[in-house]
Write a structure and sequence with these properties.
Helix content: 25-40%
Number of helices: 10
Oligomer: single chain
Radius of gyration: 22 Å
Strand order of the largest sheet: 7-8-11-10-9-12
Order of helices and strands: HEHHEHHEHEEEHHEHEEEEEH
CATH topology of the largest domain: Elongation Factor Tu (Ef-tu), domain 3
Distance between the termini: 34 Å
Number of domains: 3
């Protein structure tokens, strides 16, 4: 879809632009039952920039915006706000108050206001429909390979390292804590690679990551991403790391005490080293 957007923008001599909403409409209307986010807004902006998008407009989805009739959305947002010359949307795209607007309405508006409209056809990979719900289901099941096929890339969570409770020092395993503003679509213990370590000169470093609520020691209400780099003991506070999920080792578990937890962490580190050894040796 983005390749088609870039090609059309070049042909028309206009910037390739993406319109997105923050928060997601489902989070606004039903925050308790909203689906997990696949990508944080900051990461989404990075992905779009790397894909060649010239501009991203983030529409704040709040009560006034949600109340816009479809005709108002077209007039105020697409025509007056963005000066839309051409638009590509999914075949099932709905917009405006009560989701009353559809593709046919956009086509009619395009003829009136002079912008083109195109529907993005369904995309399948190995017979599987590519969709956010499909990616989310694969991640929730711990099937990182299937998620990677649908995404076209390894699944990544990025964020800034924050000060934690220094539990890693007690457990003999220093960790970088990344606080997540939204519940992620996966949980457990993973083999990961980490980009963004200041002293690594751009290299990806091997690591183990725990993504969950930390049930054994000081359980947290919102999932936390804790990353233990296998061969690094420097200061990462304030660094923005990109964590790429390579393999799922196991579920997060509640242990009877710190000794049992330490043994589990040691096992995870050993298994991660085996994974990277096999990867290096082919």
């Amino acid at each position: 879809m983005l390749a088609r957007l870039r090609a059309k923008a070049k042909a028309l001599g206009v910037p390739a632009c993406v319109l997105t909403f923050e928060p997601h409409p489902r989070e606004f209307f039903a925050p308790q039952s909203a689906q997990t986010r696949l990508t944080r807004l900051t990461s989404k902006l990075t992905v779009l920039r790397n894909a060649g998008v010239d501009r991203v407009h983030v529409a704040r989805f709040e009560a006034r915006f949600a109340a816009l009739a479809p005709e108002q959305f077209i007039e105020q947002v697409l025509v007056q706000g963005l000066g839309c010359a051409w638009l590509i949307v999914g075949e099932d795209f709905r917009f405006g108050a009560r989701r009353a607007g559809d593709f046919a309405m956009l086509e009619r508006a395009g003829r009136t206001h002079g912008f083109g409209v195109e529907a993005m056809p369904e995309v399948r990979v190995d017979g599987v429909r590519v969709s956010s719900s499909g990616v989310r289901a694969a991640l929730e099941a711990g099937d990182l390979a299937a998620a990677e096929v649908l995404l076209g890339r390894t699944y990544v969570i990025a964020g800034r390292v924050a000060h934690g409770e220094k539990l890693g020092r007690t457990l003999g395993s220093l960790t970088a804590n990344i606080v997540l503003p939204h519940k992620p679509p996966l949980a457990g213990i993973f083999v990961v690679e980490v980009d963004g370590v200041p002293s690594a000169a751009g290299a990806s470093l091997p690591a183990v990551a725990s993504l969950g609520v930390r049930p054994t020691v000081n359980e947290v209400p919102v999932p936390l991403l804790e990353v233990h780099l296998l061969d690094f003991d420097g200061d990462l506070y304030g660094s923005r790391l990109k964590v790429r999920f390579l393999s799922r080792l196991r579920d997060e578990e509640k242990y009877s005490g710190l000794d049992e937890l330490r043994a589990a962490i040691a096992g995870d580190v050993a298994n991660a080293r085996k994974f990277f050894a096999m990867k290096t040796n082919g």
